Amino acid sequence: MVQLIGWQVLAGDLLDYVRLRAVCAHWHRSTVRPRGRGLVDPRFHPRRWMMLPEGHGLYPGHPHLGGYVRFFNLSTGVFVRVHLPLLHDHIVLDSTDGLLLLLHHDDDHGHGTGIRLLHPFTGDVAELPPLLTLLPQIEPEARYLNMTQDRKLRRIRFLFEDISAAVTVSGDRSTINVMLFLARQPCVAFATAGDERWTLAGWKHRHLLARAVFFRGTMYTVSRGFSGRKSCVCIYQIDPPQLNSEGSQTVCPQPPRMIAKCQPLAGTVGSLIHLVECGSELMLVGYVRNVSGAHLMVYRLADLVCGRIAPIKDIGDHALFLGKGGICVSTNKGWFPSVSSNSIICSHLSTIQDPPVGTWCLKRNEQYHLPTGTCSPAMDEDAPCGDSSPSPYSLVRHIYTCCYRIFW
Fold it and tell me: Rounded to an integer, what distance in angstroms lies between the CA atom of residue 129 and that of residue 190?
């Protein structure tokens, strides 16, 4: 009975499960220990937790933090600090299902390109091949042979500045598979924990309009396409790599498969289309301009797959943050007084002309209210374009500055 209750608690949040096990010795013995299973058992993945850097120049791994990193629960608003000494010589490339994909920039074996997958709360780590093993598969042979070691490293780090990661667990032996979508190539690489090298899929996926998103074991992308003679937005599904019938070798992922189209967003600028997880669903968000002005439109992916192209006006007690990657924050208990429910927060650049001074750019953060289609300022002041020393005082500004490595 205690174990059954534990699984129900775990379905809500991993740290609640940890607190349940700490109540008494009997409950501790009667429930499964997360440590050692944090990566191989998806039930222990901290899905609703995201790393929230301190700001004020204190990037993750900064010496003044003593190895501690702050995390934020998108559903409850709870903050915790976790001791992660690995970040002393690792860089966070991406986060998927709450797991951190790390680049070991000081390793000897991978020449500064070693990769690890870390569960921030259990400390479980999976070793993945160095990124350098991908370069011979990406570059033409003649060019690769003439590249210096420094040039190889610079090329790898350029390619991996914009990636999306997917982590799946397969087989009876709980094999950890990692798939990386390289937006700058654009292609997919995959590996299994313990492999000696990454493998590049033999296809490319071009004309992307949004960052790839990992949702419920599958990766989704958005690309330009056509419906008859009319342009449209197409949503593709990329299934993760699978083990072969003998369970001994990973099979290359199949090419992207188109699952839905959305013609109303056809004229949307690429940077203004996003795939965002909201509650238990995946949403497609984009700008539409018509005679009444510019509006943000939200579509359920499940509706688009069924051929129902009807925008929704209600996302409940949620607020969507649109940026490099979409974030969904729950507002149902007033955790964030500066953020309204049923709204979308996004930033855009505005050109300001002042004859005595000249012309400059400001980054404006606005809060779009879905039911009314109106906008209001999301912050009390504008952020100068290129502000590289954030001193955040609100959740909105924090997310739009400190959560991006460019500001670290």
Answer: 10
60-64, 169-173, 220-224 — which is least confidently predicted?
169-173
Write the DSSP assignment of 211-272 as a string of letters.
--EEETTEEEEEEEEEETTEEEEEEEEEPPPEE-TTSSSEEPPPPPEEEEEEGGGTT--GGG
**pLDDT tens column, 255-311:** 999 999 998 887 665 557 899 999 889 999 988 776 566 788 999 999 999 999 999
What is d(CA 357, CA 289) in angstroms, rounded to the nearest whole number? 32
Q: Residue 373 corresponds to which tokens in the numbers above? A: 């289609």
- DSSP assigned state of 134: G
Q: How many residues does the chain have?
A: 408
Q: What's the Cα-to-Cα distance from 212 to each of 62, 70, 130, 209, 299, rounded to whole Å?
A: 29, 25, 22, 9, 17
Mean pLDDT score of the chain: 82
Backbone angles phi, psi at 379, to 5 degrees: -140, 165
Q: Domain locations in the chain?
A: 1-33, 47-204
pLDDT tens column, 81-118:
999 999 988 989 999 999 999 998 766 555 668 899 99
Contact present, 335 and 407 (Cβ < 8 Å): no
Position 56, amino acid: H
Look up residue 336 and give its two tokens: 């964030």
Q: What is the side-by-side order of every strand in the sheet holding 218-227?
A: 213-215, 218-227, 230-238, 257-262
